[in-house]
Amino acid sequence: xxxxxxxxxxxxxxxxxxxxxxxxxxxxxxxxxxxxxxxxxxxxxxxxxxxxxxxxxxxxxxxxxxxxxxxxxxxxxxxxxxxxxxxxxxxxxxxxxxxxxxxxxxxxxxxxxxxxxxxxxxxxxxxxxxxxxxxxxxxxxxxxxxxxxxxxxxxxxxxxxxxxxxxxxxxxxxxxxxxxxxxxxxxxxxxxxxxxxxxxxxxxxxxxxxxxxxxxxxxxxxxxxxxxxxxxxxxxxxxxxxxxxxxxxxxxxxxxxxxxxxxxxxxxxxxxxxxxxxxxxxxxxxxxxxxxxxxxxxxxxxxxxxxxxxxxxxxxxxxxxxxxxxxxxxxxxxxxxxxxxxxxxxxxxxxxxxxxxxxxxxxxxxxxxxxxxxxxxxxxxxxxxxx
Amino acid sequence: xxxxxxxxxxxxxxxxxxxxxxxxxxxxxxxxxxxxxxxxxxxxxxxxxxxxxxxxxxxxxxxxxxxxxxxxxxxxxxxxxxxxxxxxxxxxxxxxxxxxxxxxxxxxxxxxxxxxxxxxxxxxxxxxxxxxxxxxxxxxxxxxxxxxxxxxxxxxxxxxxxxxxxxxxxxxxxxxxxxxxxxxxxxxxxxxxxxxxxxxxxxxxxxxxxxxxxxxxxxxxxxxxxxxxxxxxxxxxxxxxxxxxxxxxxxxxxxxxxxxxxxxxxxxxxxxxxxxxxxxxxxxxxxxxxxxxxxxxxxxxxxxxxxxxxxxxxxxxxxxxxxxxxxxxxxxxxxxxxxxxxxxxxxx
Lengths: 387, 348
Description:
The structure holds two protein chains of two kinds. By secondary structure, chain A is mainly alpha-helical. Chain A has helices at about 5-25, 30-50, 60-75, 80-85, 95-125, 130-150, 185-210, 215-225, 225-230, 235-265, 270, 280-290, 295-310, 320-335, 335-345, 360-380, and strands spanning about 160, 265. Chain A has 16 helices and two strands. A two-stranded antiparallel ribbon of chain A has the order 1-2. Chain B contains 13 helices and two strands. Chain B is globular and about 65 Å long. Chain B has helices at about 15-20, 25-55, 60-90, 95-110, 120-145, 150-170, 195-220, 220-230, 235-240, 245-270, 275-290, 295-315, 320-345; strands at about 185-190, 190-195. In chain B, a hairpin with a 2-residue loop joins strand 1 (about 185-190) and strand 2 (about 190-195). A two-stranded antiparallel ribbon of chain B has the order 1-2. The two termini of chain B are about 15 Å apart. Classes of the chains: A mainly alpha, B mainly alpha. At the A-B interface, helix 5, helix 6, helix 12 and helix 14 of A face helix 2, helix 5, helix 6, helix 11 and helix 13 of B.
């Protein structure tokens, strides 16, 4: 957790940026909305990977699940889902403003609830796995989900679903009286989803900040540091793991529901269950910022998203190669992340007291080394012996 | 539940509430069964039709079995490479499949330039050996002592680099390297199945390669050093073995084996830049099921996987072939976990 010295300015900066961004950069509303979603990705991954030591490569599963649940909820109250998703497109559809927002609200709520149920169900299956087996198992889960959804014709199969179009209301409609604004109706969708994404990111952050300070947060850390010992001390590890995963799934499900509506179209492999893009981004962002810290994922996600948006179009097809290289370099050379690195260099910023002793520089170096070792200890589970 | 449990209360019946309560594995099993049922219900109509075809035109079984065995042998070859790296260096190499696909593209490149893809075999072995060595020096050496997730993620990053690089060079089309060997149609009892000579040739080559690797591991100095390092790296170092070199050699040997497997796959099947991840998962399924240092087990698991995949591809539809591999991965991982839990309980 970052020191008090930086925490308050951090909140202020983010809040001011979050509120003013759609007004100052109206052209980039969608990109900044994506930034909030990315922050949710990194934060929820860190709940598992950073705080609990369960490195999931398949958290993206809940993103896609939320997206599909929301899409079905937005359609079935008014149309037959099978007909709606029929690739021949014979069904003409139009949603009224009320229908749209009612469906969206229902979709977001059920996406969250459904993802939690799925997390609890799959938790029974995968939480027996530990360490790298868990990572591979969850990766397999996400890939399998994408393949199976792609074979399920009722929800569009590989062809995907085109989501209801955001209603183009008039300014007289009370729903469209957006604060601060003289905004054209074409931008309304962008602004609407910007705010929902922003609120989601803030809620996720505040909730996790509270969570990590409770006894529950300590239990997660205990599982990360030594699960067997925690179990021996009476921690109900299976329960805590499942609840932690459900929390991740809750926010990821909502983010999936929102993302599907921002894009307006979903398809199983590239949009809903993108294991090698968003699925690995979330790991990379958390590692880049510093896993196991509250601010690390936020900083990592922001930095990664800015780099990605600025450089992406200039790389002419090489962007994915660069992404892979970024993963390798981050993992190999900079695994402690930005916040972890700062904690090493400037422990006093974080309220970590280093005993400087009396013997001058030698003691200094020793203390730094001990601190480094201590930090490394909390950085993740010890290397398992070869089996 | 037959295993003796010293000093535990009276045994509880299978699937009884008490048993479910006492063991996480009960719930795991139930959840998995429920999941399998859901999937089966979703696909039942199509699957029944295809099963009927298998009963009526029984020659199709021979086709599926043969194809499965031929392709499974190559899966086993690549999986043996993974078992080597996993067992010796404790690195879970997620870019295994990308090495396979790279080997495949070497064969395809030769084929596209009017050179017979058979020549791809020695070229792929040499090239991939050098490539593996470079990857080891640049990346793997730095993650080998770190926690297991680090090596997993680093190799996943390499996998992304390789698949995207291949995509840029060769494009996303599905390719194959035609060998020009004839295909015979065998008629049997009123039905027919096709028999491609290249598949048999690839099968024999695969066997020869595996034999060569096994002899190398048994007889050569380096092979012995690798096995010594696998048993106890520290003791091997004390005895004067340069373990860093052994690791480098092991990793490169794995890349070479994968490259050779890729050449064979390109000749009898298809390659595409993004098919690598499935090959990686296949290798993981086989190694997890068989364990390392268990060559017969790897071969059996590889052949079994090949046949299972062919059957599921036919019965459930091609859409489910990859899902089958992944499903098997989950099954194997959980099965391993259950065995370990049971062992733990017995020890308690």
